[in-house]
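Q: For a teaching session next week I want to show students how multiple molecules come together into a single three-dimensional assembly. I've collected the sequence lines for a complex. Could you give me the predicted C-alpha cells for the whole thing so I can convert them for display?
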Amino acid sequence: MKPFTYLSPKTVEEAIAFHGQHSETAKYIGGGTDVIVKVKEGWMEPDFLISLKKIKEMSELHKNEATGELSIGAMVTHATLEKSLMIQNEYPIVYDAVSNIGSLQVRNVGTIGGNLINAVPSADGAIPLIALDGVAQLHGADGERSSDVKDLFLAPYKTILKPGEILKKITIPPQAPRTGSAYTKFGRRAAMELPLIGIGVLLTVDEDLETCTRARIVLGVAAPTPMRAVDAEKYLIGKKINENVLIEAGKIAADESKVRDSVRGKAWHRKEMIRVHVKRMGLNCLKKIQKIN
Amino acid sequence: MSNFNVVGKRIPKLDAAQKAMGRAAYIQDIKLPQMLYGKILYSKYANANIVKIDTSKAKALAGVHAVLTGEDVPEKMKMGFIKDNPPIKKGRVSCFRDEVAAVAAISPEIAKKALDLIEIEYEELEGIFDPEKAMEKDSPLVHEHLKSNVLKMPWDVHYGDVEKAEKESAFVVEDRFTTTWVTHCCMGTSGAVALFDASENLTIYTNTQIPSLAQKDFLESLKAMGLKNKRVRVIKPIIGGGFGSKLDTYAYEHVAILLAYACRKPVKMVFDRVEEFKATSTRQPTVTYIKQGCDKNGKLTFRDMRMVLDNGGHTSWGATTPSVMLMPISSLYSVKNVKYSAKCVYTNNTYSQAMRGYGNPQATFAIESSMDMLAEKAGIDRIKFRKINQNHAGEETPQGLKITSCGLAECIDAVEKELHFNDNNEKGVGTGLASLIHVGGGARIYGSDGCGAILKMDDYGKVDIFTGGTDMGQGLDNITAQIVAEELGLSAEDINVVHSDTDICPWDVGAHASRSTFVAGNAALGAAKKVKKKIQDFASKLFETPAEEIELKDKMVFVTGNPEKNMPIGKLLRKAHFSPGGTMLMAEHFYDPDNQNMGKELKGNMSMTYSFGAHGAKVKVDEETGKVEVLEYVAAHDVGRAINPLLLEGQVYGGVVMGLGYALTEEVTVKNGEIMNANFRDYKLFTAKDAVKIKAPVIETDDKDGPFGAKGIGEPGCVPTAPAIANAIYNAVGVRIKDLPITPEKVLAALKEKTVKK
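A: Of course. Below is the structure for the complete assembly, covering every listed component.
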C-alpha cells in the first residue's frame, strides 16, 4: 500500500480547499470501506486522503416535520439509518436496503454517501433513494448544485461529480399518504453479499387503498448503473394493485432491464429474480399500506 | 464416563485467551533481524512457452537483494508427491499459478515493485481445460514428454464380480455427478520465514501440518542446492487453520529457502488473500459415473464407480485422493461387489491438494445421492434402505477394512429422532439423510503412521509433553493435555503441550486423516503410562505397598483403600529428584498403529478403526427463486469416546458449515484456467449469518484401540453434508441436482425443466 497523508477538515469549505491544494493527488474518504480497499489493492494511489468524518453537518440525519422533507447527510452511516426508528417506520425501503449491506462492521463505518459515490451497479443504498425521488446536494469549488439521485450515475465507478466536488447530503421530498415501499436483494449468502440483483418498489395508492397513483420500480445490477423500470411503473398507474397486476409489472421490468451474464450470475436467472421480486416487493408495499390505513 | 476426571470434560481451548487477545504469534507476526521480504511472480498465461526473461531492471532497483528465475533453481529441486514440479518454472508454464520469478527486497513494497520490472516474453499456447476432452486422442498435451494427459496411477480395482451381481440385481440406478474446485479459506494465510546460520544449517518458520515430512522435503532441497549433511529445523508458529492445505511443502517455502541462501539473510514470504486464493491448492474436482444395484429386498448387490479427476497443470496430492475415495466406495454400507477406477488428467487448470475428507466428500456425494435414487426405485423407505445395508462391528469390507466398532445404526437413529423425517407437509420443505465412513484410527499412506511423544515432569507436579502431533486450531493441545492429565491424576492446566519445533519434538507423519487424537493421543497416553509406572514404583517403596495399589488422583498419590497414606504428586517428584541417587521422571513413547498399507491390489486395513456418522437436513426451497434455506441440521457421529465434547462439537459445527458451503455456495470459478473470484466477496464462503443451528448427537462406542476409546473425528463433519442437502432438496421439490454447488440457478433451471416435462 502506498503511504498517504490523512487530512481531517472540519467544514465542507475546508475540505474543498484541501482538495484544491492537492487536486489530483487527493481523494475524499468517508467510512473507507471502499476507498481503503482500493488504496490497498493499488487501484487508487492518493498522496492525500481527505476525511469527511469531522464535518458535523454531513453526519446529520434530520426530518423537517413542518415540510416533511428528510435530509440525510452523506456521512450518515448505514448503521445509523438502520437503527433509526423514524427510518424504520417511515422509510422502510431505506431500512430494507441498508440493514443488509455488508456486515455489522461494514455498516458501522460505511456511509450512505460513500455507497452512492462509489457508483457500483450493485449499490444497495442507491435504490431506495432513487425510489424516494431523492435529490443529491453537491458542493464544489464553484459553489452548490443539486441533482436527482437517479441522475448521479454515468457508468460503473463514474458519477457526475466534478473533481473536488463533495456530495453533502441527500434530501427526500415529503412522502404522499398511502405510500408503501420495500427493497430486497437477491444473493447467495446472508451477509457480506453484493446483490446478484437488487429490487426496490414504492407504491402510492388512492383512497380506495388499491388504485395505484404513483409507482417506482428501481433495479440494481440490472444495468451498468441503477435504473428505474419506467415502463413497468407506467403500467401500474391507474391499475388496482393485486398479484396478477404485479406479475405483469415484473415481466415488463424484467424485459426493460439490461441484465447480462457474468461470472457471478446468469442473465436469465437475474430476469427471473426481477419478475419474482417486483411482485413480492409490490405485495409487500400493499401490505404495509393496508396495515397503516 | 463417570470414572473419568478430565477426559470427557468441556475444557475450552487452552490457547483461546491468547488468540482472543491478539497475542498469538502467527507467521505474519514473525520478524527477525535483517529480515528481507520475498515475493513471487506468477505466469500470465495458462499455457505458454517462456521465450525470454529480463530481470536486469528488477535487479537494479534499490533495496532489491536477489532476483531468481527458473534458471537459478537447482535441477533436482522438485515438489509434489512425484517430484515433478520445480518451485520456479523454466521454459514452459502450464497454469496461471506457475511461478516464473521471485525477488527478495528490504520491504514488501520494493519487492512488489521489482516484480513489476521483470520483463517476460511468452509464446502463448492453446490451453486445455476440460479433463474429459483432455483424455481424447487428438487433445493437445499439457506435458509433451509424458506422451499423454492421463497420469499413470493405479486406480483400477474390482472386488467380487460386479457384472454378475448387476445381472442378478432387481433394481439398478445409474448417473453422473460432478464436484468442482473449492478451497480451504484458512483465516491465516500461507507463509514462511527461512534463514541459514553461519554453518549453512537451515531454520524455517512455516505453517505446516507435516513438520517431519516438511523437514525431509527441505533437506532434499538443500541437497539439491549442494548443501549436504546439513540440519533443518522446522518451527511452526501458531497456525490459523489447516484443513489439509498444509500437508505438502510449497513453492513459496522452497523459494524462501533459495532466496535466504542467495542473500544470506532471513527471508519472509507471506501470501495476501488474493495470492492465497490463486496460488494454493484446491479440493480435487471430480466427474463421477456411478451405478448401483440391490436385490428385491433392498440389499445392495454391487457398486460400480468411475471417475475423471482434473489433475491441473502439475501433479500434487489431489491425484492420490482416490485412495481415500475408495474407502466409502468399497465400504460405506455393506456391499460385496465393487468396482472403481479413476483417471487423473492433466489440464491447464489449477491443481489440487488434500482438503478435509480427502476425496471422501466427492465420493460420498455420488454414493449417497445414488442411494436415495436406488431406494426410490426399489420402493423402499430411504432410511429403512440404509438400515438394511448398514455396516456392523466385526465386518471386513471388500477392500479389507476391518470394522472393529460401528455406531452407524445409532447415528441414523439419532438423526431420525431429532429431525422428524416424514412430518413435513409444508410446501417446498423436505428432509434428506446421508451417512459416512472415515478413517478414525490413523491411515497408513506412508512407511510409518506413527507419532512420538516425550514427557517430563518437573519438581512441582507439572508436565511438559513434546509431541510430534500438530495443533493447527483443531485442538490437539487440549486432547493431549486431557489424556495425559487423566492418566496422571492431574488437571489439564498442569500439562504444557509443546509441538512447535522439530529440534525438540519427535517424529510424526502429520496432522492428516483425522489421526491426531487417535495416534498422537495414543503416543501421549503411552508416555504418560510409563511415567505413571515410575511414580507408582517410587511410591510403592515409600508407602511399602505393591505398586498396583498406588493410585494417582487430584494431584495426589495414595494407596488404594488406604487414602490416608498419601502425598501430593509434586512432593513425591521432589523426593525422587533430591534423594541420594536422585531421578527425574521422564518417558518417551512412539506409537505406530497396526494398520496396513494398501498394496498393489488396493486391499488392506488402512486404519485401526473407522468413524461413522449420519447427517440429516431439513430444507426449504423457494420454488420461484431456486434458493435453498437450511432449516434444521443434525449431524450424529460415532466418535468412540468424546475426549472433549466442547471441541468435538466445534469440529462438527465447523465441518458441517464447511460442508454446507460445499453443497450450496462455494466454488472457485475458473475460466480458461484463470481464477475469477480470488476474494471473499465473490468466493461465497458461509458467513456467521448463513450458519444454521446444528444439533450434534455424539455416539460413543468405546473403541478398543483408541485412547480412552476415542476415534478420529476431524474430517467427518463435512463428508456427507452435500448429499444430505441434495437429498433434502429432492424430497422437498422433486428435482435432483447432481452438480455442486447447488446454486439457485441450478435449482430453478431444474424446476423449470420439470414443469416443461409435465
